[in-house]
Amino acid sequence: MLKKAKMIIDKDFKVAEVDKRIYGSFIEHLGRAVYDGIYQPGNPKSDEDGFRKDVIELVRELGVPIVRYPGGNFVSSFVWEDSVGPVEQRPKRLELAWQSLETNEVGVNEFARWAKKADSDLMMAVNLGTRGIADACNLLEYCNHPKGTKYSDMRIAHGVKEPHNIKVWCLGNEMDGPWQQGHKTMHEYGRLAEETGKVMKIIDPTIELVSCGSSNREMSTFPKWEATTLEYTYDVADYVSLHQYYGNEADDTADFLAKSDDMDEFIRTVIATCDYVKAKKRGKKNINLSFDEWNVWYHSREKEMDIRENHPWQTAPPMLEDIYTFEDALLVGLMLITLLKHADRVKMACLAQLVNVIAPVMTEPGGGAAWKQTIFYPFMHASRYGRGVVLKPVISTPVHDTAEHENVTDIESIAVYNEEKEELTIFAVNRNIEEDVQVITDMRGMEGYQIKEHIVLENSDLKLCNGAGQEMVFPKTADQSSMDNGIMSSMLHKLSWNVIRLGKK
Fold this sequence. Notes:
By secondary structure, the protein is of the alpha/beta class. It folds into two domains: 3-11 and 389-504, Sandwich (Immunoglobulin-like), CATH 2.60.40; 19-385, Glycosidases (TIM Barrel). The protein has helices at residues 53-62, 108-117, 133-144, 150-157, 186-203, 224-233, 253-257, 259-280, 301-310, 326-341, 376-385; strands spanning 3-10, 14-17, 24-26, 66-69, 93-95, 100-102, 121-126, 168-171, 208-211, 239-246, 288-296, 346-352, 361-363, 370-372, 389-391, 394-396, 399-400, 408-409, 411-418, 423-430, 437-445, 449-458, 476-477, 481-484, 487-492, 496-504. The strands form six sheets. Strands 3-4-7-8-9-10-11-12 form an eight-stranded parallel barrel, surrounded by six helices. Strands 2-15-19-20-26-22-23 form a seven-stranded antiparallel β-sheet, covered by helices on one side.
């Protein structure tokens, strides 16, 4: 017997307007992300600045509004002064986080130039691991102050007359992690971040600051880390960061696709912790969330360890180059739905990362073709069609249990309403591994809206991957939805990502 689900969508069921920065990404000086990724002078595909034009076009296709830079773990030993000025005078350095050799050919100014070409803004991270307040303030002055001071004039002398005007700054990276250069205790980090943030906002009161949250939900100090550090940073910070990666080490598809439920619980816990601190401080502002590292990451870990242990100090070694399956794309779609569900508090998010390193965009080593991973498509769909106001659907769906999760919904869905364009987009995943589900959606609260298209990403081979010149997993338009007097019937095949676009007739 065909499984059925019911859904009600009404334009009054508002969650919040989507902050476009929820579709951000991340480029770290790690592996082939920068060198052999976005930057490859001498390649016929590169422009006059050495940036890959084909990569820029793919990034534009994704519609990435903000990119976090330069790390990641890399930032905790980053000496920003080494990355500016004449390239031929910049020192090479041992990069301690990933045990690579950093040439500093691409630095702050070059990356800002690349971001502009990619139609993206910068989210800059400061080094609170091996450096501190003064260095963070000097970098901010260099980037944002117009002229007439030591570091603003230094920027001008380096050929950049106009300030970069970077508006979002991360106060360090994963400072709770013992792997971090300059790892801090909760109180050490809280005090340092508070004092750094205070001075940075004196220099430029228009900036927004991100306080470091836990490196992942499994940290033994979570959520005490957030509760403790935010007591210090509440007055200066605008956001707290969340990081989380998922893998399918057990090769259990059903349980793997249930991990977006863990992400949902992670977000809820951090929101509750932020609100606890607000109450304790008798505060008036909400601390919002910046989920500035999220993705699937597990395929490449053995190779990463081999390079670090047996072949260290290479320039741009091929690290963290997960080749994603169709199954991975489904979880990325589910994670995007989860982020949108919390659009009232998750205002920024960064798919980690963007090019070559656990990324939707890949380039073949040595200057070869650029190509789209399977995860490219759910992200592109969400970024392209998920702009507007999130509407919370009322869903009645069958559920199932997995090895580690109970009452897992077959259908996960969210809707985004763009009133100006008179468009409504429904994102939905059927994560039942065995059965299709017919979804009956009451659309009578969206009078006059008709189906424009139903896009589907599906494949019978869950482990299928894309490659250069071999795009095996890609979306198609399907005739799987129909409308009758405000009631829409949609057939969502098992293990499928669905984008149902509607508009006024």
